Every structure is written in C-alpha cells, then in structure tokens.
Amino acid sequence: MTYIKRTTPQEIFWSEKIGQSYLENNKFEPEERLQTRSQFFDLFKNIDPNSKILECGCNNGTNLAILNKMGFNNLHGLEIYKGAVEEAKTNTPYATITEGTMLNLPYKDNEFDVVFTCGVLIHQNPENSLPTTLNEIYRVSKNNILGYEHYSKEFESRGNYRGEIDRYWSGPFDKFIQNLYPNIVLKNSFTIDHKGKFINYFFQK
After folding, report:
1. Which of 48, 61, 83, 153 pairs as cysteine with 88 (C-beta 3.0–4.6 A)?
2. Contact 140, 54 (CB under 8 A)
3. Which H/E stretch holds residue 144?
4. Alpha-carbon distances of 130 from 10, 167, 176, rounded to whole Å
5. pTM, rounded to two decimals
6. Containing H/E element for 132?
7. What's the rounded Cα separation, in Å, for the pair 129 and 55?
8. Is the pLDDT of residue 3 over 50?
C-alpha cells in the first residue's frame, strides 16, 4: 500500500475532502477536452514523439489520452487522490500512473523530457506550496516545462472554491517561473479566453 505524506491544506483538501466529488464531475472525455484546449496541445506538435512525458496532477488521465492519440507513448501521470489514480490506470493502460504529491515528486533528477500541468498549479498557494511544486517540476524535467493555468496580472485568490477559501489562485505563472529560474528559456506564452483567461506556456531548460 502506498503511503503519501500530506502536510499542506491543499494536499489534504484534494486527497481527503473533495477528491471523489471532483473525480465524479471531471468526466473522461478526451475529444471534448481537446476542442476546448486545442491551443495548449498544439504546443506538443514540435516535441519528439519518443519523449518521456510526465503530467503532474493527471486525475482521470484525460490529458494523457489526448497525447497518446497524438502519437506519444512514453507517458506518465502523478496524482494525489487514490481513486483518481485507479481510474486513470483504467482509462490509460498505456501510461504509468503513480500516486504521489507534487511537493515531493517520486522521480529522479532530469528523468523526463517534458513535464506539464493543466489547471493544477492554480491550486497551489503562491506564497509557499507553489514554489516548492515548481522546484520539483524543474528538478525532474530534463528539457521542457509546459502549462495551462488560470491567468491574471497578479496572483489573486479566486475566493470560495468547493466550500473553502484559498484553494484556487489565478496569476502570472509564466513570469513566476521565469523569475524562479532566470536561465530557463520561454519558447512560447499566450493567453486565451475559455471560461476565464488562461495562459499557455512552453519553457525550455
């Protein structure tokens, strides 16, 4: 049995409080997801299909299924809620799904060619857990870091999220990453409007 140490309010919130309800509401619909986030997945078109790819916060595996249809086969997902881990394993038998926390990724340094998140960093507190999470993403990424996150010019809490405050932030994630790692190269960054403004970014180490 896997034991994952959960210490932050965000980790406890997702793994013990709302993990199941979120999973039930987050349908496994890769074709619909691709339509609404096509511009994000376009960022993968210039990436070698043999790349080893990790999604942090993969939930039921929808994004990994999209990448598999695009021709990527070396796919890995990290998810904190055990129920979502099991569903992702069923939905994406071609991917390796691991139960774990982004604050302490269970992988070696530079293990993945690509590490990405989709609507996951928005749930990390920008004053504490977000820098820790990004340090881990940076550590395990050998080449590329991609993201699709809720954008605003400054970090701001989105208020009440599923019954609790300070569980959802929008912010300038691309600039935040650039400030953390000045030597990283921003290859692409743009915002789109889809139920609020979202930023797509592509960094190269």
Report:
1. 61
2. yes
3. strand 141-150
4. 11, 12, 10
5. 0.95
6. helix 129-140
7. 18
8. no
Stretch 70-74: mean pLDDT: 98
Q: Flag the least confident range among 14-28, 110-124, 170-184.
A: 14-28
> Quick one: average pLDDT of 142-160?
96
Tell me whether strands 112-118 and 96-99 are parallel, antiparallel or unpaired: unpaired
Compute CA distances 131 → 63, 64, 69, 114, 159, whole Å: 24, 25, 32, 19, 21
Q: What gap in Å lies between CA 26 and CA 18, rounded to an integer? A: 12
Rounded Cα–Cα distance for residues 107 and 112 (Å)? 9
Strands 185-193 and 197-204 turn out to be: antiparallel
Contact 95, 72 (CB under 8 A): no
The answer to whether residue 6 scores a pLDDT higher than 80 is no
